[in-house]
Amino acid sequence: MKKRALAIVMAGLMAVSMSSVCAYAKDEEKEAKTEGFYIGLSNGYWGNTWRAQMVEDFENKAEEYKEEGIISDYMISNSNSDATEQLNQINAMIDSGVDAILIDAVSPTTIKSAVEKAKAKGILVVIANDPAAYEDTICVCGDNYTWQKIQAMWLMEQIEGKGDIVKITGVSGNAADTIREQANDDILAEYPDVNVLTSAPGNWSQTDAQSVMTTFLSSYDSIDAILEQDVMAEGVIKAYENAGKDIPVMTGDYTKSFFAKWAEMEDLNTIGVPYAPGNATVALEVAVRLLQGKEIDEANLVANPMDENLINTVMVAPPYVVTKEAQPDATWMEGLENTEAISLDEAMELLKDSADTAALDGYMSDEAVDKLFK
Amino acid sequence: MNKVKKLMSWNAFPALLLFVIFLGINGVMTGGLSVSFFRSFISTNAGAICVAIGVTATILVAGTDISLGSIVSLVNVVIVTAFEKGFSVPQAALLGLLTAVLCGMFNGFVVGIMRVNPLLATFATSIAFAGIALWILPYPGGYIDFTFGDWYLGNMFGIIPTPVVLIAILVLIWIFVMKLPVGLHIYALGKDVKKAYASGINVAALRFFVHTFAGLAAGVAGICISANICAGSPTVGSAMSMNSIAAAVIGGVSLNGGIGGIWSGIFGASFLSILISIVVSANLSSIVQSFIQGLILLIGVTVSIAASDKEIKTKIKRAIGGKR
Fold first, then answer.
1. Among A54, B38, B39, B233, which is most exposed with the fewest C-beta within 10 angstroms?
2. Is the whole model's pTM more than 0.80, yes or no?
3. What is the domain extent for residue A82?
4. How far apart are CA A60 and CA B295, in angstroms?
């Protein structure tokens, strides 16, 4: 028994020492190649449909690239908001010899040591989906500003620039919420006849939004429109249903269950703009081109939302804008090259095989991404 | 041969064995264990190891401490905020350490002197400490001078990586305490509170001491993590409390107290950390990653408990038909 255990320890130690020897052989072949890249995705949160879709999108695109031979393989790691775990995962990827790592960080500030280590080894680091500011990296993230701006512009047009509205915001202090509310404020500033009765955070939660809306309904007799963000729309609808009142024009959500509800409700006037899980896939498309030695046209880079002095960010506009009937010529569609205006029926068609909680999803085509480059 | 026997019957041995085996597997999978692998491994996980050391001390006296992760977060935001307010890096780090020790003393006061159940007391303080961290720094941000990171990722005394030195300081303090009569008292208290009390051991003071030590360990962990990320995040330690208790148990510490030692925490935490690397290196589909990680963990815990339980050991031996 003693001997057996000792033998296991010895075997382990031998494996360690042997593998240390062959560690040196690897680092040499780092020349400019155009295909056969090895790419890793480190995802910092794992536990909702949205993130599952994000990873699935990435896998689909990576499989496509793999078949074309552009990448040789890819690896994915998920962490549940555990910063140390994510650092371990990124380190493991670096040691596996990846050419590029895409990181959706647990928290924008916690990945410094891993980013530094990757850069020291000549590995490309692309910050994906959620912004984080690190020198010599590229950040590809969702364009919260444009996303909210489209919805605010649409709402203003529906009420013809006048009336009493209420606002339900996200999680106070969250970077995405700050940017989105900035977009709302910028648009509202153009409409002096619109009166914001009140505003309260709904924490991107249906139940919170429902209780906020119920309070609003008991405090104000007439509400002409509701400006809310993201997944809270169904909570707002429930509050109205419980109160037995007619729902005024409101901004909406982009999940299948919301679209289904919308399709059932003849009178509902709303809009759905997806904050697409495909953002991480765009990061992959960008990473591959950077590895091939292409350069991003500076005109397409904007300041990082986390550090305004760092101009390294590609903002990904929403893939779709869903209205009852498609309105590609509307004012809110101006200047959005990669955004498609579609009707509610088309959105339902796109989502027909998805789960109820799935988001309407999409990402930029290879041709569209090519245009970002010189 | 006597030494081997001693090693084998050591509480932390199964965890050490698991760690070495998995280190080997990881090496084979990634095509080699480089020096840089060990360096990044130790610098990333020194925090987790320190917290495991701290929680081990509290479990040894049949208590526990689930507030250590929150203390780590608090230390991180204190260091970042102090640095931004104009303190130098060493001053900020010491301030962070002091904060952690005060938090530990507060835990010790509530558990030892007010005699509140340690689980309840530290559950409450964990929420309070995390709340203070969020209050000081509501969202991730801030920065610490990169000299802090360079110091941490570099060497001390020429060749020893700084994180190793930091862990060694905790280990040395603990070994020193174990040489004193207090060391024996800690184990006595863990084995049986009433008998320990009846024998004239100062239970309140001992509990106060272990929680203060745990606070110190969390403080060192906070310094490690802050130096590693060179930025502030009010939730950076949130997952560490539970992980550290799991690490201690895998390392052979009995939750009933009195069994195990500081090395249990160290090797338990190292094994947990290498496990994460392995699951990533194996390049499994993301859907099964958590499952595999949990499965290996379950096997690891079962093996380490079976190995430390003599009765199960003999049963297994009989089943396999091994000669005695």
1. B38
2. no
3. 37-143+276-317+361-370
4. 27
Task: Report the alpha-carbon distance of residue A52 to residue A104 in Å, rounded.
Answer: 13
User: Is domain B2-320 annotated with CATH 1.10.3470?
Assistant: yes
Cβ contacts of A46 on chain B, cutoff 8 Å? 286, 290
CB-nearest partner of A110 from B4, B229, B240:
B229
Q: What angle do CA A183, A185, A188 make, to 5 degrees?
A: 110
The CA-atom distances, in angstroms, between A185 and each of A180, A203, A222, A302 are 9, 18, 22, 21
A16 and B31: CB-CB below 8 Å?
Answer: no
A15 three-state secondary structure: helix
Whether A108 has its CB under 8 Å from any CB of chain B: the answer is yes
A14 inside domain: no
The domain spans of chain B are: 2-320
The two three-digit tokens of residue B235, written as one number: 């939730």
- Angle among Cα B56, B249, B305 to the nearest 5 degrees reads 140
Rounded to whole angstroms, how far apart are CA atoms A58 and A75?
10
CB spacing of A16 vs B20 below 8 angstroms: yes
In angstroms, the CA B153 to CA B67 distance is: 27
The strand pair at B155-156 and B160-161 is best described as antiparallel
Residue A207 located in a structural domain:
no
Return per-residue pLDDT of chain B as tens, 324 residues.
Answer: 577 777 767 778 888 888 998 888 888 887 777 787 888 889 889 999 999 999 999 999 999 999 999 999 999 999 999 998 999 999 999 999 999 999 999 999 999 999 999 999 999 999 999 999 989 988 777 778 888 988 998 888 878 899 999 999 999 999 999 999 999 999 999 998 899 999 999 999 999 999 999 999 999 999 999 998 888 888 888 889 988 998 998 888 888 888 888 999 999 999 988 888 888 888 777 778 778 888 888 887 787 777 666 677 777 777 776 554
Distances (CA, A) of A91 to A51, B39, B45, B159: 22, 10, 11, 22
Q: Is A229 a domain residue?
A: no
Size of interface A-B (CB pairs under 8 A): 178
Rounded Cα–Cα distance for residues B87 and B70 (Å): 23
In chain A, the number of structural domains is 1
Q: How many Å apart are CA B90 and CA B108, to the nearest integer?
A: 27
Q: Any idea what the CATH number is for the domain that residue A309 is in?
A: 3.40.50.2300
**Residue whose C-alpha is closest to residue B47's, from B71, B72, B18, B74:** B72
Cα–Cα distance measured from residue B242 to residue B244, given in angstroms and rounded to the nearest whole number: 5
Select from B29, B149, B276 the Cβ nearest to the Cβ of A85.
B276
The verdict on a CB contact (< 8 Å) between B139 and A20 is: no
Question: Which chain A residue has the Cα nearest residue B5?
Answer: A2
Within chain A, where are the H helices? 2-21, 49-68, 83-95, 112-120, 144-158, 175-188, 206-219, 233-243, 256-264, 279-291, 344-350, 366-370
DSSP letters spanning B245-270 = HHHHHHTT--TTSSS--HHHHHHHHH
| A 71-100 near B (Cβ less than 8 A) | 73, 75-78, 80-85, 87-89, 91-97
CB–CB contact A92 B5 (8 Å): no
Q: Cα(B78)–Cα(B133) distance, rounded to whole angstroms?
A: 8
Contact between B288 and A80 under an 8 Å Cβ cutoff? The reply is no
- Residue A245, φ and ψ in degrees, nearest 5: -110, 160
The answer to whether residue A123 sits within a structural domain is: yes
